[in-house]
Amino acid sequence: MTTQLTLTEAFPPLTNDLILRAARGEKTERVPVWLMRQAGRYLPEYGEFKAKHNVGFFDMVKTPSMACEITLQPIRRFNLDAAIIFSDILVIPQVLGMGVDVVEGKGVIFDFLLETPEDLKKLYKDANVCTDLSYVFDAITMTRHALNGQCPLFGFSGAPWTLMKFMIDGGSHSPLPKARKWLVTYPNESRELLQLLCEKVVDYLVGQVKAGAQLLQVFDSCAGELGPDKFAEFSLPYLKDIAYRTKEKLLEAHIEPVPMMIENMPANPKRRIAGKHVTLQGNFDPCLLYSQENELKNAVKTMIKRFGTQRYIANLGHGVHKDVNPDNVGLFVDAVHMYSEEINASS
Amino acid sequence: MTTQLTLTEAFPPLTNDLILRAARGEKTERVPVWLMRQAGRYLPEYGEFKAKHNVGFFDMVKTPSMACEITLQPIRRFNLDAAIIFSDILVIPQVLGMGVDVVEGKGVIFDFLLETPEDLKKLYKDANVCTDLSYVFDAITMTRHALNGQCPLFGFSGAPWTLMKFMIDGGSHSPLPKARKWLVTYPNESRELLQLLCEKVVDYLVGQVKAGAQLLQVFDSCAGELGPDKFAEFSLPYLKDIAYRTKEKLLEAHIEPVPMMIENMPANPKRRIAGKHVTLQGNFDPCLLYSQENELKNAVKTMIKRFGTQRYIANLGHGVHKDVNPDNVGLFVDAVHMYSEEINASS
After folding, report:
1. Can you tell me the ipTM of this complex?
2. Tens-digit pLDDT profile for residues B21-48
């Protein structure tokens, strides 16, 4: 830990802290912006890098220098206010003993899925996230240095329910909702699994901050299918626990806690409902990135008017689609900055 | 039309009009209940019938005597307050010239999908729903007679956006949201397609009422992915148009309009928001049908308390899953009746 703290102290000073100020509720001269899945397949340089090195998706995730390079690709192209480490939420199931690969044209393939609670015995419950996921921590430290203070770096994790969903259903869509069936037919074993995931996620997030992550994002992308009752029972308590325990563990280690964003799909955050004292993030429809320039800019304007320019971080509602024109991502980023600066200047 | 009117007049009198009264806002002594996909794969007699006749899904849909038999299967087992004709929303794309089949283990397979607006030329725009879908009308007339007034019979259709989604994406889930991309990149051609679908849906619904349907259900199951802005632009106007024009066309033909239910997934109808003067339908989580008896009954009780016992039709939020125990469907139906009668008696 001493080494890591020393590393952290040695990181280059930040020249753009816009997103950190928005997260803390401080005044911002313009709205900070980043995009879910901003590094990845829609960027030609991503495909070129992958082809040149002849590697698979998880090879890149597990090689810190490669993860670092891919994290930086969108930062070089666009005026983004945050980077997010190139990785995948499924590194946690991998650590627990489930083989996962991304197969071209087929998506995510697990070597086995959890069918019944009996299968929980197959999981490596004592897996040590701090050693097994050291490649993510190394990638974060390397990327934080490489960013040279240009913008802050996000670490991230999947939320327990979303991870459970993938480990049972094999993906975010499945013809039969087996994971949801677990919640009803095996509630105790479901809680056991969610609790295990929660513990691993906390260790993982703490490790990422120790390695240099300046913000954390928790993705509960599958929360939408739970409905309000099941969300309250099987998602929210674990999200709260993660937020609380990550902070506690960082304080115990004498490390300043970092802002944590929690994304869950059903939330359509509205300033009117949330009030003025919460920082909101989102929620540009990624399909609008297919628009013509004028429509795109108008949609950005509408979004900023809805959310306001303070305590707000602009982002998409889902990840960037792989067939989006990168120029439109640039238009989106610049439009967020331009319109929010205009509104701030005139108010 | 004269023949059909005569047929309609000759239908047996209704002995259970509970759901019609709830739909019209009249007082009901207990809450009426039916289930989306109440006829189908979770019933062993469905599988036995299919195996015995060695037929595929659409063979049954297109043979009125078979569709009639399958519609009646859940009515024989459970104390349901409505039947719904056994059919599929994809009969409309079929009429427009798209081959669709259901393949065991693979789901719905189209012989081609709409890739670009150029493909709209492949559609039979002048297809005559009244002749091409006469098998549905025959099935409805036959089933209405066979029901012998035991409960009313629903006709149904997919909504334009949901049909468009299937015709472009091939199903309700797809890795790339091509249908949504159409709305952004080809808005005019999207409207043209939605308008065409709207016209066919109106003719189809009118035909079903003429054949004997006593209620209509419009499924916009994919509306959830639109988000509020796109829903307002590309789904709602067509739903309104369908409701208006179906009624107009029935009145022109001197036929009494029937209640029309419009389902769209994002709506989580709440009595508090909807007010007392709207009939709500829904929204029991189909996964709760996997519960133990006591949990199932408690969940029904909670649902009825939320919705109230008047102007309310109990149903699921999605279709019945194929691996549900049919006994639990019976428990659900009986619990709705029992608890709503109890509440009505004590108030």
Report:
1. 0.83
2. 999 999 999 999 999 999 999 999 999 9
Sheet holding A83-84, edge to edge: A83-84, A153-158, A215-220, A260-264
> Tokens for A255?
């490390």
The DSSP string of B148-177 is TTSS-EEEEEE-HHHHHHHHHHSSS--SS-
What domain count does chain A have? 1
- Helix ranges restricted to H, B263-312: 271-274, 293-307
Residue A124 contacts residue A95 (beta carbons within 8 Å): yes
Distance CA B61, CA B137 (A): 11
Q: Which of B227, B291, B321 sits opposite A285 (nearest CB)?
A: B227
Q: Is the pLDDT of residue B141 over 60?
A: yes
In chain A, which residues have their Cβ closer than 8 Å to the Cβ of B285? Answer: 227, 229-230
**Which segments of chain B are extended strands (E)?**
83-84, 100-103, 107-110, 153-158, 215-220, 260-264, 280-284, 312-316
Largest CA distance in chain A: 62
DSSP lists the bridge partners of residue A215 as: A154
Task: Give domain status of residue A291, yes or no.
Answer: no
Tokens of B285: 């989580």
Chain A nearest-CA distance from B180, in A, is 7
Please state the rounded mean pLDDT for residues B310-328: 95
The answer to whether residue B67 sits within a structural domain is no
pLDDT tens per residue, range A204-222? 999 999 999 999 999 999 9
Per-residue pLDDT band for B274 (boundaries 50, 70, 90) equals low
Task: Please state, as a whole number, how many other Cβ atoms lie within 10 Å of the Cβ of residue A134.
Answer: 14
- Report how far residue A67's alpha carbon sits from residue A85's, in angstroms, rounded to the nearest whole number: 7
Give the per-residue pLDDT at B6: 44
Contact B177 A321 (CB under 8 A): yes
Q: Cβ of B323 and A291 within 8 Å? A: no
Q: B183: closest CA among A321, A324, A326, A288? A: A288
Amino acid found at B148: N
Q: Report which of A127, A199, A121 is spatially closest to residue A163, judged by C-alpha positions.
A: A199
Locate the chain A residue with the closest alpha carbon to B267: A227
Structural domain range at position B258: 85-267
Q: What is the pLDDT of residue A270?
A: 58
Tokens in use for A214? 């300046």
**pTM, 2 dp:** 0.89
Q: Which residue of A has its CA nearest to B321?
A: A176
Name every residue whose Cβ is closer than 8 Å to that of residue B30 and which is 6 or more positions away in sequence: B18, B309, B336, B337, B340, B341, B344
Q: Which residue has the higher pLDDT, B243 or B10?
A: B243
Residue A336 is assigned to a structural domain of this protein: no
- Read off the CATH number of the domain in which A157 is found: 3.20.20.210
- Residue B11 lies inside a defined structural domain of this protein: no
Residue A89: how many other CB atoms lie within 10 Å: 18
